[in-house]
Amino acid sequence: MGRSMITPESPRCPGCQMPPRWCVCEGVRVVDCAVKVDVLMHHFEQYRPSSTGHLLKRVVRNAEIHLYGHDRQPSRDAIVRPGKKLWVLHPLGDPMPADATPGEVQVLLLDGTWRQAGDLMRAVEGWGRKVSLPMAGESRYWLRTQAGAGKFCTAEALIFLLGALGLKEARDQLNLQFELHVYGGLCARGAKALAAEFLASSPVRAAYPALLERLSRQRARDRG
Fold it and tell me: For residue 157, is it left (φ>0), alpha (ψ between -120 and 50) or beta?
């Protein structure tokens, strides 16, 4: 991967967290879904522009982030909604109930590295039902190397969940926002070849021709 174009001192768009010249906010669309979405984020993820937990907060209506750290422990009462069935997504959980009603489900996504996710899971143990999803294929989260085959990022887990619940429109809308997030991040890092490879098989290519043209002009100016 090419060198990063983002440093801690670089100005960033307050929306997408990209450097202003790589801002993708014009492509952001709010995703409505029946499931209540919450993210338990490890505090190390808090300032990382690549975080898909931040992406979910930006694009999923009513999604919320709750920070976890040594001096910041989550409160069940502050997160769990009355009248909802809380699912905590985890690869070692039970299979998803076949008769689930999306409007009754609140999902808690664990956002951190795989090692950090273990701490997050212990912090919420017993809060709700630990659920695993039928997730297959390869991760499209090209901004970070996944921990092995069948490993996916936070946003991809929600995309799989929405599909499994039959919420196709919400799933497709969120997937498009996720793909735009990854592509923008690759451009911001100066990973031109990888960004082009990613775009070749991405729905972003057809969905955002004007935005892609602007980013293409930006790359040309950078080369000049």
Answer: alpha
